[in-house]
Amino acid sequence: MREVGASPRPAVGALPRCGPKWGSRRPVQRECGRAQKWAYDLHTEIKHRILIQYLNPWLTILGSSYNSLAYVDGFAGRGRYVSGEAGSPLLVLDALVARLNTHLQEEFVCRFVEAHPENYANLEAEIARHPVSRYSRITCKLYPSTFSAASSEIMADIRQRRQPSFFFVDPFGYDDPSMATLQEVLELPRAEVLVNLMFNFAHRAMNIQGNSKLTQILDSLFGSHEWINLIPLVGQERERAFMELYRNQLRRSGAKHVVRFRMGDDQIARTLYYLIHGTKHSKGGMLMKDVMVALASPGQRGYGGATRHISMPLFDLQQRDLPKFLHSRYAGRTITFDDLIIDTLEDEETATSQEKDYRAAIRELERNGAVTIQQITTTYGLDGEDEITFALHRQSNLF
Ligand SMILES: C[S@@+](CC[C@H](N)C(=O)[O-])C[C@H]1O[C@@H](n2cnc3c(N)ncnc32)[C@H](O)[C@@H]1O
Q1: Interval 2-28 mean pLDDT
Q2: Is the CB of 113 under 6 A from ligand 1?
């Protein structure tokens, strides 16, 4: 590990893998550095917006209770894309510097892991040029290593400093991180992960029979051999089952709330990858869902791809009118506003609903006599512990 500016650079250990190269003759080492991989497209821009739009409030919320926070970019990439756009490490540093210029009081430690030597060199040079070096409250540590090799040292350091942490795990392939590593991350106090799950590569790998190396990689990706049951499934059925299994495994590994964003291909009707957020904290899950819904294509929980961005969802969501859905689910029950959102956080029926949509739905139900509200957190609004009592169906005039 090196703090920025230090030299010489330690030797790079295992080189990274960047996608499905089974049978390819192209050297692994060249793959991750290829310029084509570093073109800045809309997928990358949306991914970055999700990261930063979540991190800003995360910093504000955690920064009010802790004086030391950690950000880990486990697959940090180059500093800049070929057309000059900032990569995730620089974007996070920009956000921290902007905070520091206003009200950041806490110490912040950023850890950037990058296994490919050329990408690492570019990252290191860009960070050295970044104004962050003028801010003593922000420390950058760089690891020329694979994430799996560096993660134990990073986690030990975070544990020792008792820092809340945010891990961005954004590989090109699917052989790192393992579910076991994500479990270790989620066992840290107040840790969260945003994982880029390379669905398209991993689900295609399932179709290759008799390759023990691939079987091992898929076992470690899921932390289970259950994926074998998905092989006979096709199309949306396979994709749903795949995501269900991954989500359940992440929950078994310690994430209480898991929300996801589907990234569609621009050229053909298929999913490229999913961004998956795992956290133990309900506020974090609610916040990330709001960010993801705001950045999604209409009617979708994700980016539909160039041709489907405006119309035609590729993936059928079982969507329903929100007031009707809530009333049918909770008729005769009382629940707080936050619990209502948490309880339905991962449901398909509410996949495109933000907190403001829940508020509007409950107000509509109130106008129709289908709910009564007891103000606890707010005086006139709807938030937190405010209690909503849903009438039985026959008592309301909505249905
Ligand atoms: C998708 S890119 C990262 C992009 C970056 N997070 C961003 O948003 O700008 C993935 C990076 O991970 C690196 N990489 C591949 N395998 C790795 C591993 N096992 N550990 C750490 N880095 C790895 C690649 O060289 C590549 O630079």
Answers
A1: 39
A2: yes
Q: How far is the CA of 388 from the centre of ligand 1 (A)?
A: 45
Q: Does the beta carbon of 181 sit less than 6 angstroms from any atom of ligand 1? A: no
Ligand 1 probe mutation, 142, 151, 172, 197, most atoms within 8 A of CB? 172
Question: Are 182 and 250 spatial neighbours (Cβ–Cβ below 8 Å)?
Answer: yes
- Class of 2-308 in CATH: alpha beta
**Residue 83 alpha carbon to ligand 1 centre in Å:** 18
Q: Count the helices and strands in the chain (H runs, E runs).
A: 13, 12
Distance between start and end Cα atoms, the chain: 62
CB of residue 50 inside a 6 A radius of ligand 1: no
Q: Whose CA is nearest to atom 15 of ligand 1?
A: 16
Whether 138 contacts 93, CB under 8 Å: yes
Ligand 1 lined by 81 (C-beta under 6 Å): no
Q: Are 260 and 275 in contact (CB under 8 A)?
A: yes
Q: What distance in Å separates the CA atoms of residue 221 and residue 225, rounded to the nearest whole number? A: 10
Domain pair 2-308 / 322-395, same fold: no
CA count, 13 A, side-chain hemisphere, 349: 14
Q: Which H or E element spans position 240?
A: helix 235-252
Q: What is the mean pLDDT of residues 43-67?
A: 95
Which architecture does CATH list for 322-395? Orthogonal Bundle (1.10)
The two beta strands, 302-303 and 257-264, are parallel
Find how far residue 241's CA is from the centre of its chain. 19
Q: Where are the domains of the chain?
A: 2-308, 322-395
Q: Is the CB of 263 under 6 A from ligand 1?
A: no
pLDDT digits (tens, 9 = 90+) for 348-381: 889 999 999 999 999 999 999 999 999 999 999 9
**Mean per-residue pLDDT for 207-229?**
95
Q: How far is the CA of 170 from the centre of ligand 1 (A)?
A: 6
Element (H, E) at 142: strand 138-143
Take residue 352 and report the two structure tokens written for it: 């495109």
**CB 31 near ligand 1, within 6 Å:** no
Q: How do beta strands 138-143 and 2-3 pair?
A: antiparallel
DSSP tag of 308: G
C-alpha to C-alpha distance for 19 and 112, rounded to whole angstroms: 20
Atom of ligand 1 nearest to the CA of 48: 8
